[in-house]
Write a structure and sequence with these properties.
The protein has a six-stranded mixed sheet with strand order 5-4-3-6-8-7, sandwiched between helices. The chain is 45% helix and 12% strand. Helix 1 crosses helix 8 (204-214) and helix 6 (160-173) crosses helix 10 (248-259). A hairpin with a 4-residue loop joins strand 1 and strand 2. The chain is globular. By secondary structure, it is of the alpha/beta class. Bound molecules: Fe4 H S5 (Q46) and zinc ion.
C-alpha cells in the first residue's frame, strides 16, 4: 500500500478510521500536527505555560512528554512511585522516566508514596479496589505537586481507547453526574490546576506506532494490578466493534464532547472547604486522600 499523503513511500500504518495509509515520515508529521491542532482547538496551553506531564514510564505518557518538548513547550515530568514491587514494576518504570528526563533535558519530579506517607499502594487496606485507591492517590498528588512547584497545567497521556472505555463504563451505569464531569480538559479552579489530555484523539495503536517509530524507550509491561480490570474488557469490546466498523471510537468520543453540555446540569457542585489535615480543597472535613493515607 502506498502512502496517501506523499504518494511515493510505502505505508507503514493504515489508519482505517480515516482511510489514511501513511509512510513513516508522513505518519510522524501527521501525529505532531494533530497534537498541535488538539492543543489549539481546545485552548490547552501556550508556550508561556508551565506544564507538568504525569509520566508512568509507559508509551503514552513518555510519547506525550517527548512530543511536547519537541514542539517547544516547557514541560517537566512528574513520576509517582506507587511502590509496586511485583515484577519490579515501579522501579523499572522510574528508570524509564529518568532516561527520558536525561534525553529531553527536562526536570523529573519524583514523588515517593512510601517515603511521604509511609504506605505503598499494595500495602493499603481500603474498601476500594487497588486501582481506585491508586487513581485517587494519583489525582491528589498530581494536583498538589503542580500547585507546590508552580505548574499551571497538568498533561496526561490518556488516549482514545482510555477515554472511550471510561465513557462506556459511565454510560453502562448511566451515571449522569459523572458524564457531566468527564472532559478532554478540566478547567483550573481555586485550588485545582488545569488538566488536559492532548492524546485523547489518538488510538492506543497510533501512540504505540509513534513510540516505536521514534525509538522511545518505554516500559512494555502492564501494572500487575491491571490484569482483570474491567476497563481492559471494555477496550477489547470497543476494539472488536472498531474492527467491524472503523471510526466508531473516534465518533463515540467526539459526539460525546459535542453534546457533553447536556450532562453538565447533572453535576453536583458541593461546596468546597479545606481538608483539616492537608489543607487541600475537598467536599468533606477530611479529604479522601488523607482518609486513606493519613498524614502527608
Ligand atoms: S497503576 Fe494504579 Fe493503574 Fe496499577 S494499580 Fe491500577 S490504577 S493498574 S493505570
Ligand atoms: Zn487532606
Amino acid at each position: 500500500m502506498i502512502c496517501r499523503k506523499c504518494k511515493k513511500e510505502k505505508a507503514v500504518i493504515n489508519n482505517r478510521a480515516y482511510r489514511l495509509p501513511l509512510c513513516e515520515r508522513c505518519f510522524l508529521s501527521w501525529f505532531i500536527s494533530r497534537t498541535r491542532k488538539t492543543i489549539r482547538d481546545f485552548k490547552f496551553f501556550s508556550e508561556k505555560d508551565r506544564i507538568l506531564v504525569a509520566v508512568s514510564g509507559g508509551k503514552d505518557s513518555l510519547s506525550l512528554w517527548h512530543t511536547l518538548v519537541e514542539m517547544g513547550y516547557e514541560a517537566d515530568g512528574l513520576y509517582i512511585n506507587l511502590g509496586i514491587k511485583e515484577g519490579n514494576y515501579s522501579e523499572n518504570s522510574l528508570e524509564k522516566c529518568r532516561n527520558a528526563s536525561e534525553i529531553l533535558r527536562r526536570k523529573l519530579i519524583v514523588f515517593d508514596l512510601k517515603e511521604v506517607t509511609g504506605k505503598t499502594i499494595p500495602e493499603i487496606k481500603d474498601l476500594r479496589s487497588k486501582c481506585s485507591t491508586c487513581g485517587l492517590a494519583k489525582r491528589y498528588i498530581m494536583n498538589r505537586k503542580a500547585l507546590e512547584e508552580n505548574y499551571n497545567v497538568i498533561a496526561t497521556g490518556h488516549n482514545l481507547d482510555d477515554e472511550c472505555a471510561s465513557l462506556l463504563s459511565t454510560v453502562l451505569r448511566w451515571d449522569l453526574g459523572y458524564l457531566g464531569r468527564q472532559d478532554i480538559k478540566l478547567k483550573e479552579m481555586d485550588g485545582f490546576v488545569k488538566k488536559v489530555k492532548p492524546f485523547a484523539f489518538f488510538s492506543e495503536k497510533e501512540v504505540l506506532a509513534f513510540a516505536i517509530l521514534k525509538g522511545i524507550d518505554y516500559l512494555d509491561a502492564e501494572c500487575p494490578y491491571a490484569e482483570g480490570a474491567t476497563s481492559l474488557l471494555y477496550k477489547e469490546v470497543l476494539n472488536r466493534i472498531e474492527n467491524h466498523s472503523p471510526g466508531t471510537k473516534i465518533r463515540f468520543y467526539k459526539e460525546f464532547l459535542k453534546n457533553k453540555g447536556e450532562f453538565e446540569r447533572f453535576r453536583e457542585m458541593d461546596e468546597l472547604k479545606k481538608c483539616k489535615i492537608c489543607g487541600q480543597l475537598t467536599t468533606r472535613e477530611i479529604c479522601a486522600f488523607c482518609k486513606v493515607f493519613g498524614r502527608i
